[in-house]
Design brief:
The chain is 27% helix and 47% strand. It is α+β, with helices and mostly antiparallel strands and 117 residues long. It has a single domain, classed as Sandwich (Jelly Rolls), CATH 2.60.120.10. Strands 1-6-2-5-3-4 form a six-stranded antiparallel beta sheet. Keywords: Membrane, Transmembrane, Transmembrane helix.
């Protein structure tokens, strides 16, 4: 290998540990602050979505949606509007119907909903 190739590899590989450290540091902060969004008085509901299944729930006010599982992606639809893909967490301030859709053909997901009281 030439010196220029080795330098190129070092320049490409150096940011990886830094970005990984920052991801793990701020990921927990984002999830923790997202759960505080609904306030101190809240009610919590846990839903298991099987592969290719849908569940509709009524919402009113602030809602925090947390997704757990092997595949942390789900699709939501608020009041029959356009579909929105979410990863891990979504904060809503809406009233009406919330449709939770697991588009995975293999994995089930666990969805935790926190409603403001």
């Amino acid at each position: 290998m030439t010196d220029q190739t080795q330098l190129g590899i070092v320049i490409l590989a150096l940011p990886l540990p830094i970005l990984t450290y920052l991801w793990f540091r701020y990921y927990n902060i984002i999830i923790t602050e997202g759960t505080k969004y609904v306030g101190e008085n809240y009610r919590e509901e846990e839903i298991f979505l099987l592969p290719s299944s849908t569940k509709t729930v009524k919402i009113d006010g602030k809602v925090s949606i947390l997704v757990y599982g092997v595949n942390p992606w789900i699709t939501i639809r608020v009041n029959g509007g356009p579909k929105q893909k979410i990863f891990k967490i979504r904060l809503l301030n809406e009233s009406g119907n919330l449709e939770l859709i697991n588009e995975s053909k293999v994995f089930q997901v666990r969805v935790k909903l926190r409603y403001s009281a």
